[in-house]
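Subject: complex prediction, re-run

Hi both,

The earlier run crashed halfway through, so I resubmitted it with identical inputs.
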Amino acid sequence: MMSDCYAIRTEDLRRVFRAKRREAKKQKREVVALDGVSFSVGSGELFGVLGPNGAGKTTTIKILATLLSPTAGRAWVAGIDVAKDPKRVRRHIGMVSGGETSGYGLLTIEENLWMFSQFYGLDTRVARARIKELLEVVGLADRSRTKIYHLSTGMRQKMNFVRGFLTEPEILFLDEPTLGLDVQTAHTLRGFVSNWLAEHRDRTILLTTHAMHEADELCGRVAIIDKGRILACDAPATLKRELQRDAIFRLRIADLADARGVVGTSPDVTQFTQTASEAGVDVDAILTHDGALTQLLASVEAAGGRLLSLEKREPTLEDVFLHIVGHGFEDEIREGGSA
Amino acid sequence: MAAWLGWQIESNWADPFVFAIYSLVKPLAGALILVFMYAVIAKDGLHSPLFPGVFVGNALFIYVPAVLAGISWTIIDDREHYGMLKYVYTAPVNVFAYLIGRGVAKAIVATVAVVIMLLLGTLALGVPVRLAGINWLFVAATLVLGSAMLSLFGILLGGVTMITARHNYGVGEAVAGGLYLLCGVVFPLDTLPAWLAATGRVIPISYWLEAFRRALLGHGTEAFASLSDGVLLAVIAGSTAVLAVLAVLGFRLAERRARAKGLLDMQTMY
Ligand SMILES: Nc1ncnc2c1ncn2[C@@H]1O[C@H](COP(=O)(O)OP(=O)(O)O)[C@@H](O)[C@H]1O
Ligand SMILES: [Mg+2]
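This time it finished cleanly. Structure:
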């Protein structure tokens, strides 16, 4: 099938890992990382892949970046089959993995980046100018002559981030680019990503993240992925709008530690999450109809809880995820994906 | 460019003195110790008619572990130490050119060691290297073919390293050790047990060392006496060509396997 009009396209991608020998005794032998993933990304899009740890985000990127072959299914990048012609794909792509400290430790930031630009045959003068400019953006300009041995993890990550944009690839894969960075830096980098794409309209970015607000803020479209399957794929606004039919109520309750028995099990509640607060517990609930609220408040009171505040709030991508997957990210992490 | 990186990595030691020790003294000491052991054990020691051949063989053999280990280390170093192999791979660079480039730095350092070793032999140990009698064309041809041959060996080994995962830092040196025995560096091939000698005879490095003995000393060893200089070069060229095919196919196969198993960005946590 031809797919020239897409920057990226996957068709029923599947990837199975054989568990390592030592672990194999305890667990089942195979891990299905991707279980039939299909999506397409148009040229010029900033496409997000959103999912909890272990959802298959990195695996997807590795396959698209020609580092890993799929077990089954196909994928095209820039219209080229990644399994058949990885070499040709490499002329069109760039990649940054977040939370990573790659780089030749004995070289300075500038040398590392220059070196990398030479992999792509970039003109040295152009490369130097871009390096300077990009380091400026991420606030590393004054460190350009420091050997990266001496850099903090965060600084190395920023350098890696710069490396991805340095060659201005047609299609750029960002795998959790803000992972482990402080709030301020993450914010700067997100701003940079959207500006960059605005300035380079023919470029395409595929970004994975487990931070919902990041996907919400940056991405034109988002695929929500869990356990190797895509559960929804649309613009964040559309995803949220679909949910808006169901109003979300936030109840702040005092003198009650656990509202699951009172609110969570009510037949009128289609979705329930709670977080402990200082006074008691905060509850987010989606109701089958607004009228059910009176009954709910009565049950809370009957259980000894005291209502501190009640608000009807806009859904976030987090609610969308919760709604589709049936469990939150935190649950996923805590329970190791056995929800 | 890869060579530049290789050079930076080679030479960028915190202390130039440590660098000198590590890069020069280590291979030199290794080669000299073996030569002296030979001199002590062998009948007639330094005056044995075999000694010059052994000496030259040892000197040139410095190249073998340097280039072999150099190239196969690059795979592990880039993948696990620097975390860069995957970025090299996703970039439009020719992996072979990259690996060979990284090997060049090692080869330059090794060249210095080889030259020092030969000077030492000529000036102090009476190894009869006669500059006047050297056929430089022959030397150049041998050097060029040798670089290609060793690089290809390194690439083949690099492929093996890529897929055999764990703690393989020693593989280059281990293989070099085996080659040391098989290629007639100390024991001329015709003194080895028949099956070892046969193995030695199919390894092109044996012929390459022989070519250097002839080039520098004017005569080679008994084992290859039946081959003329031209035939010797032809054997080296032919086997290098065969090796090229093997290395490229082998490496591509390894790459494919690595891609299937997800080894290109593996961390073996050494
Ligand atoms: N090399 C590997 N060997 C075995 N299992 C793996 C390997 N890489 C990933 N996995 C498994 O595949 C699943 C998806 O992983 P990954 O794509 O890294 O998730 P994400 O990036 O979304 O956190 C996880 O269950 C993970 O344990
Ligand atoms: Mg990941």
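The pocket of magnesium ion (ligand 2) is lined by residues A 57-58, 175-176 (CB under 6 Å).

- K.
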